Amino acid sequence: MTKARIAGEALQLADIPNIGPAMVEDFRNLGIERPAQLAGKDPYVLYERLCTVTGVRHDPCVIDTFISAVRFMEGAPPHPWWHYTPERKRHLAAARR
């Protein structure tokens, strides 16, 4: 499957870079069915909601993937999910202070 190169090419959730079947299911558990619904969402809020909905504390790397998907749908270039790991770590460290 070829992934979208820009947000406008993402017609299905699985078209978004870094998003596979498990993440599609996670988005659907959050009521997100279309890529455009991700624009403007807070990836950290999505993560907390996912943990609540599923009753499982997911790996923090899920946050990185949420950041990558949201940013992509807001017009950022496609980056691998781990590109956002340092940002997530800084954000969570600041939130603990």
Describe the model:
There is one protein chain. 47% of the residues lie in helices and 0% in strands. The longest helix has 13 residues, at 61-73. The model has no long low-confidence stretch (mean pLDDT 96). The chain has a single domain (7-96), classed as DNA polymerase, domain 1 (Orthogonal Bundle), CATH 1.10.150. It has helices at residues 21-29, 43-54, 61-73, 85-96. Helix 2 packs across helix 3 (61-73). By secondary structure, it is an all-alpha fold. Pfam families: Cdd1. It comes from Luteimonas notoginsengisoli. InterPro entries: Cdd1. This is Helix-hairpin-helix domain-containing protein.
Number of discrete domains: 1
H/E order of the elements? HHHH
CATH fold-type name: DNA polymerase, domain 1
Largest sheet: none
Q: Using only CA atoms, what is the Rg?
A: 13 Å
User: Helix- and strand-based class?
Assistant: mainly alpha
Q: What general form does the structure show?
A: globular
Quaternary state of the chains:
single chain
Return the CATH architecture.
Orthogonal Bundle
Supply the number of helical segments.
4
Low-confidence stretches: none
- Approximate helicity band: 40-55%
The total count of strands amounts to 0
**Proportion of residues in extended strands:** under 5%
Give the secondary structure arrangement, pairings included.
Layout: H1 21-29, H2 43-54, H3 61-73, H4 85-96
Helix pairs in contact: 2-3
Task: List its salient traits.
single chain; mainly alpha; DNA polymerase, domain 1; globular; Cdd1; Helix-hairpin-helix domain-containing protein
